[in-house]
Each structure stands twice: as structure tokens, then as C-alpha cells.
Amino acid sequence: MTQIAPRIVPPSKLPEPSIWRRQRRLWIVVGALVIAIGLYFGIGAFIAYTADAYVRSDLIAIAPEISGVIKSVAVQDNQKVAAGDPIVTIDPEPFRLDVELKKRQVDSLETSVAIKVQAQSADAANVDSAVAELRLAQVQFDRVKILTGDMVISQSDFDKAAERLRFAQDRLAATKNQTLVDERSISEARAQVMAARAALAVAEYALSRTRLTAPAGGYVNNLRLRPGDYARAGEPIVGIVDESRWRIIANFKEDVAAAIEPGKRVWVWLDSTPWHLLSGHVQGVGRGIARNEVPEQLLPYVAPTTDWIRLRRRLPVTILLDEPKAVQGLYMGADARVFFFR
After folding, report:
1. Average pLDDT for 270-284
2. Among 63, 99, 180, 256, which is most exposed with the fewest C-beta within 10 angstroms?
3. Dihedral sign of CA atoms 89, 77, 53, 284 in order
4. How far is Cα 332 from Cα 270, in angstroms, rounded to an integer?
5. 3-state DSSP percent of the chain in helix, strand and coil, to 5
6. Residue 275: left if φ>0, alpha if ψ -120 to 50, beta else—which one?
7. Percentage of residues in the chain having pLDDT higher than 90
């Protein structure tokens, strides 16, 4: 048998894909980027938005004006307090004893002044007596002088009369000088009384400062104080977050912040209460920021979003929430988001 060789059919030539098909993915990516850029700049022309925002209030640092041992703590951590509520009591016993000591010193000095004033009244009588004695001695001297000239009285009698006159003059001068000394002593004693009364007032004030109260309503924060701890004057021992000073600090880019006018209506999203938009208005825009992060300075430092590329700086914008405020969602330092229509 003869074998028939199979016929080889040449493959059909496939059509070459178009440029669009070959670069379809690239075109899709490019188109998506163009749309995203257009949306970003297009929406940005009508809506300003920032996620670089946070809740802020005033932290009242309560520091005692005196040093002493803590006797009692009337609040607990995270407790809500009203203005005037007792917070801490410093042991008042040492200050009470100091007040009693100062009172005794005032009484003693006032008694001393009374004695000296009484002695001064005797000085007046002594002056009157010395004046009368001087007048008598002067009269006698004048008489003896005339008689001595007429050779009726001897020179010895004249010398005695002159001696009595000088003695009377010296006694009057000494009495007047003693009166001035006593007046000066009384003035000094009265000045000591005034100083003692001032010291007593300071001691009474220190005693009144042993009881610390809340200067404003708010929430006790991060309380670590316990009875028996030692409080030093001027060092904060209790912090209270003021419930009446809530505000939002939103860091907007320079061009956006510079165009914001006070009173501008904005909308705030708190991360602590999501899906709840709160209305607010711009209180003002910060006029200065620090370029370097340095603690304890008056200019606020706004950290850039990244360190490896230079971006536009952000300026802090203070936003006040409109009433009624959702106090339960306000926590100092919590994140927020802010947007408004240009």
C-alpha cells in the first residue's frame, strides 16, 4: 500500500492588534490620573478641606500659693467640677499656729505703744514744770542782778542765782529733748505694730490659701495627687480642662488660610463622634508660626506633613463651634476634620 503524506496547511495570519489595544492599560492609567487631578484641583477650587485639625481647650493648672502637706483630695480623676468646688486641702494646722503667733506679737506691740503714750503724757507735765522753774529762776536772777549793781547783795549770791538759771535752762532743754525721744520711740513702736499687723494679714491669707477650689467648671484630668503628698508653692498639682473654652484648631495651607475671613461658616467632623457634622465659624487666623520645633515658645509650631519634600506651610485657624455644642464628643487633643465652601 502506498502511504499518502498528510497535507500541511499553512497557519492563517492573525491580524495585528491596534495601538489602542496594545496600550490600553497605559491609557486607562493615564486617564484615571487626569480625572483624579482634575477632580482634586476642581473640587479644591470650591471646597477647602483639612484633616490636620484637633480639639483644644484651656488646661487650668492649679498650683498652691503655699507649701505644705496634702491633707485631703476632694475630687477624683476625670470628675466634672463646677467653679468654686473644693479640690484640695493643705494641712492648715501650721498656718493656724502662725496666725496665733502673729496675733500675740501684735497684742504685745500694741501694749508697748500704750505704755509709751502714757509715759509721754508725763513728759508734757515735766516740760511745764521745767518752764515754770526757768521763769522763776529768771525772775530771781534779774532781781539779784539789780541788787548786786546797787551793792546790796554780794557777788556770791549773784553767782548762785546765775547757777540756778543755767540749771533751769538745762533742765528745760533736757526735758524737751526727752519728749522728742519719746515721740520718736512711739512712732517706731507704732511702725512695728503696723508691720506686725501686715505679717498677721499675710499669715491669715496663707491660712485661707490652704483650701484650693476650682476656678472654672471643667473636668479633672490625669489626677495623681494623694493625701500625704507634699505640695510646693507655684508647682501645679491638679489640671482641669475648661469646659467653656472648646475650640477647633485647623491647620490649612497658606493660600487657603490667608483667604479665610473671621466669621466664615465651616463644618467640623469629630473623630470621637463620627457621622455627626457640627457647624462653627472662624474666630481668626494665626499671624505667626515657628519654623523650628522649640518647646515653651509663644509662636505655635505646625509640623509639616513630611520631611523629605518641601510643602507649603500650614497656618493655624481657630474655629469656634456654634451652640449647642456636643460636649460629650469634645476631648482635648482629639482629631477633627474641617471643610468649608469657598
Report:
1. 90
2. 180
3. negative
4. 11
5. 40, 25, 35
6. left
7. 42
Q: How far is CA 239 from the centre of its chain?
A: 13
> CATH 1.10.287.1700 occupies which residues in the chain?
93-208
Residue 171 dihedral angles phi and psi, to the nearest 5°: -65, -40
Asked if residue 80 has pLDDT above 70, the reply is yes
- Choose among 338, 296, 303, 342: nearest CA to 320: 338
DSSP string, 299-323: S-B---S-SSS----EEEEEEEEPS
Nearest one of 71, 75, 74 to 95, comparing CA atoms: 71
Query: Residue 30: pLDDT above 80?
Result: no
pLDDT band at 1 (very low <50, low <70, confident <90, very high): very low
Give helix then strand counts, H and E, for the chain.
5, 14
pLDDT confidence of residue 32:
80
Name every residue whose Cβ is closer than 8 Å to that of residue 53 and which is 6 or more positions away in sequence. Answer: 248, 249, 250, 251, 268, 335, 336, 337, 338
Q: How confident is the model at residue 29 (pLDDT cuts 50, 70, 90)?
A: confident
Dihedral sign from CA coordinates of 325, 328, 329, 331? positive
Question: Which ranges in the chain are annotated with CATH 2.40.30.170?
Answer: 47-59+242-341
Confirm or reject CATH 2.40.30.170 for domain 47-59+242-341, answering yes or no. yes
**Cell 487666623, residue located:** 285
The one-letter code for the residue type at 218 is G
CA atoms within 13 A on the CB side of 240: 27
Whether 200 has a pLDDT exceeding 50, the answer reads: yes
Asked if pLDDT for residue 193 goes beyond 80, the answer is: yes
- Written as nine digits, the cell of 182 is 519719746
| Residue 86: cis peptide before it, omega within 30 degrees of 0 | no
Model confidence over 120-159: pLDDT tens digits? Answer: 666 566 666 767 776 776 776 666 666 666 566 666 766 6
CATH code for the structural domain at 93-208: 1.10.287.1700
pLDDT at 19 over 60: no
